[in-house]
């Protein structure tokens, strides 16, 4: 009888140990799942920050591109003016037709 009680106690202790081990395993699994979820959250935050950085860079590039395009327009305008001046000043003895018109208009006004 005593032996049987001892065996029962040992079996109960072993069952309790198995239950404790199962609880510990479940707790470890819960902790692992929580760690995975936290890692995923950190990854999402990092990805959001990267997207924001890309957006900021795109805005900065757009501003620079707009400035470059406007400068290109000004350079084209200056090139046109330079070409016109070059063609008008090729022969220093020949006046452009518009300056001759101004001269005739001024002469007609003086004559009146």
Automatic annotation (TrEMBL):
<feature type="region of interest" description="Disordered">
    <location>
        <begin position="89"/>
        <end position="112"/>
    </location>
</feature>
<feature type="compositionally biased region" description="Polar residues">
    <location>
        <begin position="96"/>
        <end position="112"/>
    </location>
</feature>
<dbReference type="InterPro" id="IPR027267">
    <property type="entry name" value="AH/BAR_dom_sf"/>
</dbReference>
<dbReference type="InterPro" id="IPR013606">
    <property type="entry name" value="I-BAR_dom"/>
</dbReference>
<dbReference type="Pfam" id="PF08397">
    <property type="entry name" value="IMD"/>
</dbReference>
<protein>
    <recommendedName>
        <fullName>IMD domain-containing protein</fullName>
    </recommendedName>
</protein>
<feature type="domain" description="IMD">
    <location>
        <begin position="58"/>
        <end position="96"/>
    </location>
</feature>
<dbReference type="GO" id="GO:0007009">
    <property type="term" value="P:plasma membrane organization"/>
</dbReference>
